[in-house]
Amino acid sequence: MAGRRTVLFFTNSDFGQANVVLSTIYELLRQNRLDTHVVSWAPLQPRLESLERKVQDENPSQSVPSITFHNLASFPGFLEFAKKNANRRKADVPHPPGRLGAERIALLAVRFLSAWGPEAHLALLGWAADLTKELDPALVVVDPHLVPVHDMARSLKRKYAVLSPCTLAEENAVYDPQVKAINEARSAQGLHEPLGSFTPWVKDVPHICPSLPEIDLPLSFPANVHNCGPIMLPTPPMEESDPDLLAWLQKRPTVLMALGTHFEAYAATVREQAIGLRVLLDARPDIQVLWKLKAEETSEGDGKESLNTILGEQIENGRVRIESWLKPDPVAILRSGHIVCAVHHGGGNSYFESTWAGVPHVILAMWYDTFDYATRIEYLGIGVYGNRAAGRNCVVNKENYQAPLMVDGQEFGDALLKVVGRTKGDSYADIMSKKAAQLGEVCRKSGGRSEAARIITELSFEDAFYSA
């Protein structure tokens, strides 16, 4: 194991995708045995630089190696790819579960597998291959969503691993015309393996995941899946990151509602969410709400009007605090000791953060795998699926699709009261809170971040390279 080796990460820059990469790199920098290169979009670069400074500040007597950043927008054809995807509206990503949402689920799967289109797919594959040959890393670590890079690693027969922010999910869209076009272009380049990255169909490729048997459904995992436990970023305490917000949290037990970076709420959804919060606040005058709200731009005015009508008094007297962005990391807020319930959309990152923190959930599921996490918290006894009926009974316009209304205020309010308790000391809510706290302790003891770094380091110093 003499000498240093290089590890090359390819990742998206969205927080929900990149946090597991940043967390693992933090541990690798502290161990200082590998040279780290990261390929991503420009918004990730400042976060990497901040990570370097943090490790250096924590180890002032050591020289912390720099992270080398490579801009993913440098590959040929990026501008054309960006132009094609510029008009996709986040507000219309949500879809209902089951039969009503089947077509949209299939469409999302197709977009995931064929988002790049044949030309961009091969252009990114070639660009990534040139970079990989130049750096000659001991290990390539790939985000599951960067499908062309998986092809690159396989075509070059490089040893690689998948570092996922989610549990394993399955997709089946290989017969769609868009996916078939990608596969035809791939086949012309000699790439005949199935297209996809979530399912560990290549048994020699390690899949590093943030789950644990204790916080997952009863599944059987193949040997190449490493369930490390939640892979959390180190976060400064709120005393440092936002003392003003901490002072506000200290006033009352708080419900934190943050529905993910990809969720933008139409006015009708804002209205029903506000109604649900009003149900809670009327029943529990000792509770307050911190709401991270990102409204859909064209209906933002109507949404504000609903907020003023339904929650105006509570906003005025300080029991409801609405922010478009939160300065502290969500984990710091969740671990402040003042959060009694986390309301989120059921994204993998939100699920693992809240579960690691030991906080019970209400999930307003909005798309694809979020329905899985909403079911999971009820199976584990640590939360409530807060829009089950609204999602199943919503109205979908297939001809001119717009995200349907999938939140009902009364259903949401009832879910909140189940988790927080209709009265202080409610036995059902207390049982749920204790169960969440127990699983949080299990998660924190798992050392997910350190375990992910250990696996990547061991793989990097193995001499046997991956061969398909």
From TrEMBL:
Cross-referenced Gene3D superfamilies: Glycogen Phosphorylase B
Higher taxonomy: Eukaryota, Fungi, Dikarya, Ascomycota, Pezizomycotina
Keyword Transferase: yes
Coiled coil, from the record: none
GO molecular function: UDP-glycosyltransferase activity
Top-rank lineage group of the source organism: Eukaryota
Listed InterPro entries: UDP-glycosyltransferase (IPR050271), UDP_glucos_trans (IPR002213)
Keywords: Glycosyltransferase, Transferase
Protein's name according to its UniProt entry: Glycosyltransferase family 28 N-terminal domain-containing protein
SUPFAM superfamilies linked: UDP-Glycosyltransferase/glycogen phosphorylase (SSF53756)
